[in-house]
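Structure tokens please, single chain.
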Amino acid sequence: MRARIAHISDTHLGSRPGAGVRHNIWGEEMKTQLLENDFYERFAELFEKIAEIDPPVDVVVHSGDLYNSPWEKNHSQPPLHAQITAMKVLQGFIAKTGIPVLIIEGNHGLFKFYEVSLLDSLRLAVPGLKVATQQDLKKAIREGTPLEFSFENLDVFCFPFIDSAVLRSSNMIDIYDDWITTYQKRERLRPTVAVTHGMKLDNTLYDAIFSMDYDYIALGHDHRQVKHSSNAWYAGSPERWSFREYSDKKGFLLIDIEAGEDPDITPYYLEFKRPVLNETITISEDDTVESVVDSVENWFSKNGLVADWDHKTAARLRLVIEGQSKRLTGFDLGIALENARQKVLSHNSEYNIAQFVWELKQSADAEYTAASYPEIESEYLIEDPEADFKGYLETLEIDKNFDVETLTKIAVTSLEFAVGKREGKMTSDALQEDE
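Here you go.
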């Protein structure tokens, strides 16, 4: 018996890149932000392409992170339009094709402290949709039952995301492994698939799953479309969620399965109109603020970014500026780049740019590596903000009634709140915390 599935993952509906984004631009007027809307369009495009496959697939499996939030850095529900998009696209696809869809819960879209799931409401709203949540997983382990769905031509065993730290703290690592080997085993000689959300990188991909003789293992969590083993692949994310993904091919996987044989895997790729650019500019010891800004402007021109605004092709870009010059400070360069960004992102701008962020790496001893998530990427780095700000004050005529140390403390504390080093609000109490 043969089976055919489409494997998708990490759609992150509701993702809203925020740093350095052009203000008041809409993907859909008064409903979705421009870059947020890219994720909705890719989600719809996935199902449009899957619906055209001939012969058709038996089931679509989504290996986690349907929504972008809640997660540990953002505890709010996904935007209403993200939930409406998921509902509309899934309802339309299943009604048109009759092909069932199965979604497991990932680490995004997961309420950490509540025994409820956003997938529960979606399951009620979309006939033909199957979901497996973390609560379903806990119940199956507790009751000693499989977490499995059977379709006409295949069986699918589900492993929603569960943090290894949670299993360790509750002394359940061995219990979880025993549940897998006892209850998640194939019972019939027909195509059998596992779908799970995890990676070795954060210890959320469990070895026991790979001992169960599944014909194919549909992996989620890694945003790259990449082979893990001969019968296990990550489908990857269909949209560029992080600037680190700027050169990754994005799409979905078509899997043809025959019981007991290696699966036949065909990658499908999406085409993007919006460029995502990630560039490094190296400064020399004699560079000035003006010469660095000129280099940035030349880079814009070379890449065709000096152009009329087009909301479909406006670029997302990140510049990494590395190296050190005796003729400038990080503070001075940060101010200049902020001025350049205001110019680039203004509504009368001559640049076709939707997002512009940067990082400074000013010495090998203090190299800064940006976070992998766009929601928490810092826009720039000042290596020694206290020294830089004092140096800046020395270039000004300061009223003698002002204390340089107090001004510096206010500036540095404000910066720490701005880049997320401190939580809460900037208050007078915050200035006194270290005294």
